[in-house]
Design brief:
Blueprint lengths: L20 E4 H14 L2 E5 L9 E5 L10 E7 L17 E6 L1 H7 L2 E9 L13 E9 L2 H8 L6 H5 L12 E2 L2 H4 L10
Parallel strand pairs: 1-6, 1-8, 2-5
Antiparallel strand pairs: 2-3, 4-5, 6-7
Length: 191
């Protein structure tokens, strides 16, 4: 068997390619608890229907990823706030996060921030009985970030199936709170 390919890093002359996905410490903690109960996990950013536009969490493989679905990122459950991994996570430490190709086209100018809030999760999502629900927040990429992102390659379901994997991130992808990734204009603190 051949070793899987690694997607080319997308850095361009515009600088480092920002991650398309950032996770709050609270969301990572809930995912760790869910993986302890359910094993390997995956997520899909829903585009509507029954549960609205919500991030849905499933046991790995329970949701069929389409050939054109886009990988937003791999949440590394080994990491704490501000840490950068040396390699990609595997097994229960890795949570892939997908979005449909058409929804990605509408959202590609934003960084998805996976957060968690008290409340009942989506009916099909694993966190539903936990008293919390995953929530998508977003930060619009700056013009220079969009230049870097536009010159990078996206990884789709067909690539993943063929064994292609992204490079490990070079910047932290876990933040303490959503406001750390999505600052509210006109504020300087988390008041």
């Amino acid at each position: 068997m051949n070793a899987p390919d690694i997607a080319e890093p997308g850095a361009s002359s515009a600088g480092v390619v920002p991650p398309r996905l950032v996770t709050t410490a609270g969301a990572a903690d809930l995912l760790r608890r869910l993986s302890g109960n359910h094993g390997e996990l995956m997520m899909h950013q829903s585009g509507g229907c029954c549960d609205g536009s919500a991030p849905m969490c499933y046991p790995a493989g329970e949701f069929i990823v389409g050939d054109r679905d886009v990988l937003l990122g791999v949440i590394d459950l080994r990491l704490g706030v501000g840490e950068v991994p040396a390699d990609l996570p595997t097994g229960i430490d890795a949570v892939t996060v997908w979005i449909s190709g058409s929804q990605f086209e509408a959202w590609k100018h934003t960084q998805l921030v996976l957060d968690v809030v008290p409340g009942r999760g989506g009916g099909f999502s694993l966190e539903a009985p936990e008293g919390y629900r995953f929530l998508s927040r977003a930060r619009a990429f700056a013009p220079e970030e969009n230049v870097s992102l536009n010159s990078s390659t996206i990884l789709v379901g067909a690539d993943w199936e063929a064994g292609v994997r992204p490079h490990p991130p070079t910047v932290p992808q876990v933040v303490a709170e959503a406001i750390d990734a999505c600052p509210v204009p006109g504020t300087t603190s988390r008041d």
